[in-house]
């Protein structure tokens, strides 16, 4: 009986194997009838509008001291005879694409930053000198103008909201200087926040993106641009299948201002918001963690005038659902100044609607080293809007952003970097550029300027700035 049972088992197993084999053969046959999509026609259609952007800048090397010869008995000691800084040329390359027949080229701001000479090379190898007519560092966008001899092929801007996770996309650019390189992949995720700026909302893709692809287009299968390739996540510096593109809908909202004014005027709501954790949701009696929790309201700002209060949860802005706190700054920033928009909030468990007249966001920039001799610290600062404080994890009245640091300055020597936030000056909290100026003016000139700085990773450090009088 045991043998008979074994035989039955083998026969059943054999029958099942044959059935699986038949199913596999049927599946393989069907797969052969479904062709993998070719991107050849699409690449040929859109490639003529993709360009190479070459940037040349002239920089000065930091001054250095002459070393004693190798036979000097005390290695590491220096002769105190400073050399004059030497100028050198630095070249970089990126990508871009033509958005108007008369020569408007869209690219990343970080591609053209500090450029003295910009050379735009078309698909047919024709070269033109370019000039920057508009840039927006906060969204890393820039518009370059060339003067073509004839009308240029242009891209069509699509709808980044319409693409779905899993859709095919194609990237074209000049990775590592290899012009007109075409790569394909899918949309891996949407709405990614990577800490690149206050308006993070990236499309993530596994289409190969490498250094030199920055500023190039990300196309959908209809040949329309849905994103601008901007960043990669990589420890090696090369592609590992995680790239990020700026959604084209953001570009469409800003492009007219960049073209005509050279910069962007943003809307201002006058609130600081923060994410809603499960614990906060429970505390506020919310059923879910969606929305943006109002942590603070600017006195006499648009939100306060309309009746919005601390503790409200913004769930809808001008007809658009607010899934999380990171969405709100971008929605507000892209709203025309003086436009009245309906904002829905949850207050005490009930939905209430407020009509808010959006104000103008005033970005105040100040280069301290240009103010007066005693303020020559090499810092450029910027006030932090209330909308951004919550996203950055700052208190409502704390911090001033460092936007630039002059090479070789006391600020640079102390280790301060762009992106840092100054929390204190000489152990006194500061919340505005004017406050920093006031504290510096009161500082004693013979003592170092003591700053408490928060780094981009959330850590804090003290930095002592002093002028070299030796």
Radius of gyration: 28 Å
Number of helices: 10
Strand content: 35-45%
Total E-strand runs: 30
> The CATH topology of the largest domain is what?
Thrombin, subunit H
Outline type: globular
Secondary structure: helix percent: 10-25%
From the 3D coordinates, which CATH architecture of the largest domain would you assign?
A: Beta Barrel
Explain this structure.
The structure is a single chain. This protein is of the alpha+beta class and 470 residues long. It has four domains: 44-64 and 84-145, Beta Barrel (Thrombin, subunit H); 156-260, Trypsin-like serine proteases (Thrombin, subunit H), CATH 2.40.10.10; 267-360, PDZ domain (Pdz3 Domain); 365-465, Pdz3 Domain, CATH 2.30.42.10. The protein contains ten helices and 30 strands. It has helices at 2-33, 40-46, 109-112, 248-260, 278-283, 302-306, 327-333, 386-392, 410-413, 433-442; strands at residues 50-60, 65-67, 78-82, 87-100, 104-108, 117-121, 127-136, 141-145, 156-157, 168-173, 181-192, 202-205, 217-219, 224-232, 243-247, 267-268, 271-274, 292-297, 313-317, 320-321, 340-347, 350-357, 359-360, 365-367, 379-382, 400-405, 421-425, 428-429, 449-454, 460-465. Strands 24, 25, 26, 27, 28, 29 and 30 form a seven-stranded antiparallel β-sheet that branches. A six-stranded antiparallel β-barrel has the order 1-4-5-8-7-6. The model is unreliable at 1-15, 63-82 and 364-375 (pLDDT under 50).
